[in-house]
Design a protein that fits this description.
2 domains; alpha+beta; Nucleoside Triphosphate Pyrophosphohydrolase; single chain; globular
């Protein structure tokens, strides 16, 4: 993993795992005292929603480490050597057994104590070409939502992609721009 330019120059690696690196640095406070801070650099991720006709397909997932089923976006971590477009096609095939017309929607950067980029995509015209290959213990069921049901789900506590949910709520739902979002998602 390359050192991200958002990692402070004077930080030192304290842990390097398969998917993330933990950095520590001393930082002087306003009172002149120093404190130890940590930042985690994680591999970037791809996340996407699937448009099938007039419906939005989202995974309903159950994992052994979670108490209940959750609705969210499809997604996965980008392997170190992958480009986001390659990763999304691989992940969609693994998670849903599908392929489709992929278009990049946006990239959002996460900063602060966790550094990573999240690449968001829209996949239209999905075609099932094989059985999904889920991770051990992972149960995924595809659920079809109308646009209105999708907006409702995004605002629910069980929607697991909180960064995406906050973006949809603040950029489209609260300002009353639902029609703009609908056109963005359903136009080809």
């Amino acid at each position: 993993m390359e050192i991200d330019k958002r990692v402070p120059a004077h930080a030192k690696i304290m842990y390097k795992g398969q998917r993330r690196t933990i950095w520590q640095r001393e930082q002087q406070g306003f009172n002149g005292e120093s404190e130890l801070y940590e930042v985690a650099q994680r591999f970037d991720s791809v996340q996407w929603i699937v448009i099938d006709g007039d419906k939005i397909l989202l995974p309903q997932e159950l994992h052994p480490r979670r108490e209940r089923e959750q609705i969210g976006m499809f997604g996965g971590m980008i392997d170190e050597w992958e480009e986001p477009l390659v990763a999304i096609k691989r992940e969609f095939l693994e998670e849903a057994g599908m392929t489709g017309d992929v278009s990049h929607w946006m990239t959002r950067s996460k900063t602060g104590n966790m550094i990573m980029d999240m690449h968001y995509y829209i996949i239209r015209n999905p075609i099932k070409i094989q059985e999904p290959r889920h991770e051990p213990g992972e149960k995924i069921e595809l659920v079809r939502f109308s646009f209105e049901e999708f907006l409702h789900e995004v605002a629910q506590p069980r929607f697991r992609n909180s960064d995406f949910a906050m973006y949809i709520i603040t950029e489209y739902i609260l300002p009353g721009k639902q029609n703009e979002l609908k056109e963005l998602l359903f136009s080809e």
